[in-house]
Amino acid sequence: MEVTAPLPAHAGPQLRSLLADPLLHELGHGLGGPYHVLLPELFDSNAAAFRRAFTDAGVDGRVYYAKKANKAAVYVERAAVAGLGVDVASHGELREALASGVRGEDLVVTGPAKADELLRVAVLQGALVAVDALDELDRLLALATEVERRARVLLRRLPPEQPGSRFGLDADEMAAALHRCASDASVDVEGFSFHLSGYDIRQRADLAGELVRLCLRARESGLRADRISVGGGFAVDYVGEDDWRQFNKSLRPEHFHADKTFSGFYPYHSPVAGADGLRALLASTPVGEDTTLAGLVRAAGITLLVEPGRALLDRAGFTVFRVRGVKERDGYAILTVDGSSLSLSEQWFESEFLPDPVLVPAERQDIADAGPYPASVGAATCLESDMLTWRKIPFPVRPAVGDLLVYANTAGYQMDSNESPFHDLPLPPKVVVDRPADRFRWRLDRRHF
Ligand SMILES: *Cc1c(COP(=O)(O)O)cnc(C)c1O
Predict the structure, then answer these.
(1) Which atom of ligand 1 is nearest to the CA of 412?
(2) pLDDT exceeds cutoff 60 at 1
């Protein structure tokens, strides 16, 4: 039977050594089910790479970790220690960030139609608020007057190239917002923001150019306007270019359990990813300008904010399931694991988390047989559609009960954004693993659910 091309996930040295370490099987035994591993050292190095991109370009920049990408405490704790800002979009996220030691003034509060209590605490904490709508601005100004504090504000721009977006202010609304703020002493317009879906660097450069011009114009009405936020959306490179090309070229329905088809997949390969995306953005010349974005913000005395979520979590976590059953089908197997696809959120967007899970065999003798052994991966639930992987993964050895399946690079949105205790299955605990010397050590995350 013809099988799908393999799509191995990039694995750094830390994951590679862990795959060869007895710790993963021990944790499976000790925790008695699927679990997530969090690697905070990778978060630290991703953050450092973003900061270096600013320094190398001579740009005054600030990195805000977009907290919604993962519910764990450890990443926010690392953000606090490293002096990063945090992007929060709910009262719960704000509370978590403050409790982890992030200063109020290092928060940016985003999200639509923020509740009064959230706006009020944001003002009292001196947090930056990205205002998404005119009615929200009115509520914020009233609250700021009431608590006798100045609201620190970014006005969020609706992206002209994504006119269907439900976020941000269009050109007329922006003019109205500026007019209101210019005559109100309770607000400090520190600048403008946007967040684009997709990963297009040119779109981001062009819109950042517009925000720089907005700052210059706003200053003429006496507003401060000395910072812009270009949001998140720095790509992550999950799989290699050749593997990705080969996979797409050879794709057929029969490569998936039940001949399942999908309308599209997330771009798992990205030639320019993470902090390199920021470097490329700073080096781009926005439309209508004749200098790079770095040059423009430098000349205008503007601080550039970024809010990466997924990219700060690149390779900073993975998810481990145990194989509970192996059912033979015509030319492939269906593995059943001890968790559910709620722990791989891409499955809930009519799509599939494609990077191949790594099979870590339990100790046994018969693993030298010649593969590939194609297998799909089903959940320990009673739903036909609860599949962790519809694709018939070409495993190099025959999977068996007790083996581990390790889905790499799941910290950014995959592992926990859709989890629920469906079927009364416990939520997979989160295990923080680091390696201070020559041995791995572990502990549970402060928020291990
Ligand atoms: C989701 C979000 C981010 C983070 O996006 P990533 O793609 O994870 O980098 C940043 N800013 C805002 C306003 C967001 O809504």
Answers:
(1) 8
(2) no
